[in-house]
Amino acid sequence: MSRFVFRKSNDPELPPNIVPELANMRIRIFTEGFPETGAQYYEGTVRKFVIERLPHPNLLDKLPLLLSQERFSYKPASETLVVERVD
């Protein structure tokens, strides 16, 4: 049985810039060229991603961009990752 938790206030487990609307948003993180030649690294909620994957602080700072745009690119090392909202 699945449980959905929707918070209306800030979650103490998340950084302050991850507001409830963003925390409940579904995202997909993949390399350029996905699905033909790229790879998908993550699909799920921002909350779960931040708590379970412990992303780099630079990526944490960029996640709020998803509140105003559909996707953004992020280059942590040699490959470029795309982070997009999933409806």
Layout of helices and strands:
Blueprint: H1 20-23, E1 26-31, E2 40-45, H2 46-53, H3 57-62, E3 71-74, E4 81-85
Antiparallel strand pairs: 1-2, 1-4, 3-4
Q: What percent strand?
A: 15-25%
Radius of gyration: 13 Å
Mean pLDDT comes to 87
The low-pLDDT segments are none
Oligomer: single chain
- Major sheet description: 4 strands, antiparallel
Largest sheet strand order:
2-1-4-3
Please bin the fraction of helical residues. Answer: 10-25%
The structure class reads alpha+beta
Distance between the termini: 22 Å
Question: How large is the count of helical segments?
Answer: 3
N to C succession of SSEs: HEEHHEE
User: Overall 3D geometry?
Assistant: globular
Number of strands: 4
Descriptive overview:
The structure is a single chain. By secondary structure, the protein is of the alpha+beta class. 21% of the residues lie in helices and 24% in strands. The protein contains 3 helices and 4 strands; from the N terminus they run αββααββ. It has helices spanning 20-23, 46-53, 57-62, and strands at 26-31, 40-45, 71-74, 81-85. A 4-stranded antiparallel β-sheet has the order 2-1-4-3. A hairpin with a 6-residue loop joins strand 3 and strand 4. The longest helix has 8 residues, at 46-53. It starts with 19 loop residues before the first helix and ends with a strand.
